[in-house]
Amino acid sequence: MTGRFAPTPSGRMHLGNAYAMLGAWLVERARGGRADGDGDARGGRMLLRIEDIDEPRVMAGADRWIMDDLDWLGLDWSAEEGVSPLWQTGRQAIYEEAFDLLRQAGLVYPCFCSRADIRAASAPQEGDGFVVYPGTCRRLIDDDPSAVRERLAAGDRHSWRLRMPEGHDPSGNTANGSTGSIVTFDDMIYGPQRFDLARDVGDTVIRRSDGIFSYQLVVVVDDLLTGVDDIVRGRDLLRSTALQIHLRDLLAGLGFGGDGARETADGAPSPRHPGYAHLPLIDNAAGVRLAKRTRSLDLGYLRSRGVAAEQVVGYCAALLGLPVRGGFADDVTTPEDPRFRPVPLTAAEALDLFSWESLRGNLTDRKLPSDNPFLNE
């Protein structure tokens, strides 16, 4: 089995990144047993991918910070030439190949809409505010393809969108995959998931108007070609998972990589679909999702203030629902309690405690009790 770390080098990693990466590492290392007597973790294959496809957002040196912080936390990965660590920049020809297959199959179309156009024509979905593209340019190319050709010839700015299939499948198939407009998968934490691509996702940009390939395309290509079959990330990407499963099916059906999967460095082909585990999100004390601009919780700042790696691992393990002891009194049992101080753990020690069972019983997003629970004594 193969998992991956896939950070974006747009700044220093924060506590939420460490939490997700610890979860990914634990899943993969648990595949092959627990830590041995020397504290070295055994288990599945773990890759590191630096997701720097969006070059305007990349911060110089952030990739090195990421690797240094992972090493500090004790989260190791496989070193494989050309596979891990892997930088997305320099792989444009591979993404272009996948995009060309989709375009030649008539599965993408140019979109001239601005964000303001889309907001004006769409209503956000209840709950998360996600806006489904209303299909303006899809109708344009279907109804008046000559007008589209004229706009392209004139150099009008445009992105490229992936057509979502129409129609509903009443079968309720529960195996990972897509049937018509319906995608289903069984998440290791949130359980069975079912999305209607036309209704819940909509036609999605896979190449931006500045020519940069979207996250949705490149992550599918990279996971497929490097043999990733375990993916751990935040629950905010559940909807994206449905899209990526569908896109993976399309590329496999078009023969991308050879029979739907290219061999990895160790000769193991990527599976048709990975397994997925989506984690509750981490909010700060104000109830706002953690971001890299939250300076007080970035790992560089914590390290500069003398916070030990074992403190971070122990706290993240508690947030993941592992049975980590801590607190100033017997009634302090959750990391959301301001009095909670988890017992410091190494990554190998966290592995010995690992299970998703407790997390499955509490799917609410985590809220930190203070802006910096490590320094709030």
UniProtKB/TrEMBL annotation:
PROSITE patterns: AA_TRNA_LIGASE_I (PS00178). The keyword ATP-binding applies. Residues 3-249 form the Glutamyl/glutaminyl-tRNA synthetase class Ib catalytic domain. InterPro entries: aa-tRNA-synth_I_CS, Glu/Gln-tRNA-synth_Ib_cat-dom, GluQ/Sye, Rossmann-like_a/b/a_fold. One of its GO terms (biological process) is glutamyl-tRNA aminoacylation. Belongs to the class-I aminoacyl-tRNA synthetase family. Signal peptide: none annotated. Keywords: Aminoacyl-tRNA synthetase, ATP-binding, Ligase, Nucleotide-binding, Protein biosynthesis. This is Glutamyl-Q tRNA(Asp) synthetase. The keyword Transcription regulation does not apply.
